[in-house]
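Entry 14. Structure prediction run on the chain below.
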Amino acid sequence: MNGFSTPQATTRYVAERLNADFGLYLRDTRLLAQRQSAWQHIEVFENPQFGRVMRIDGCFMTSERDEFFYHEPMVHLPAIAHSGVRSALVVGGGDGGAAEELLKLPGMERVVLAELDGEVVAMAREWLGTIHHGAFDDPRLELRLGDARRFIGQGSERFDQIVLDLTDPFGPAVELYTVEFYTACRRALNPGGVLSLHLGSPVHLPDSLARIAASVRAVFPVFRPYLQYVPLYGTLWCMAMASSTTDPAALTASEVDDRIAARGLHDLQLYNGAVHHALLAQPNFVRALLDKPARPLHSGDVLDEVRDPAELPEVVVSAAG
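Output returned:
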């Protein structure tokens, strides 16, 4: 389909496979818009539980009512660990949620949003205002459309914080989960700079998580994985912070709360000092998973566990009655 569709008030059920044996569905009560870009198929629809939902290539990306479960820990745990972030880079994150969280930080002078697909930004700008809250119009935000590998690898710019808010690691996106890309990110950080990323789920893609973690560890001396349940993803989700010197585990809960107060972050729905340490706590099965030897990803590698949804049989959900 070329161009945006008109809203349709018809009920359908849409499902996402998390692996061959596990998945979830949502009820779509109104399709607001959809577009086939040069890269992917993008939809925004309404759901009674989550409000407006963005779905890309059959994968649920973000929603109005649960985005803070993902964006707040992804941004604020590393930002609070840092002495004071003034410049940041978001790779991916075309919905604007991570950029909006970064722009809350006092002293933030510049946020660069490097997104491959401008159609994601266009859809989010029009339909997901309660997620980005006007971040795309903030004069401190610079939008760079194109390949982030080229931007980071060939550029000379440096940042205090980098947020890798990426799609799942299949197809060309795998290159953004490699030792080579993380090495380029480390070079793009200022001294004491922090990087955050998602590793995936230890529940349904444990081997892939272990390999991505091994890739980050091969580059950064400080590596701190942390866990958060994300309702829209239907599972426990693992993120991580990496740095050459900055360690989020060095802060007490009181110190985190003091920094939150000093920086005027009053509208957070999830993150606080106690949650900071709860995020960093690892259940035994995750410790065992991360302790196992795993082969880092290099350019050209693939993750066998992670499949392009287009390669899998379609899931059809039907409602009785």
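The longest strand covers residues 189-200.
Filed with the rest of this week's runs.
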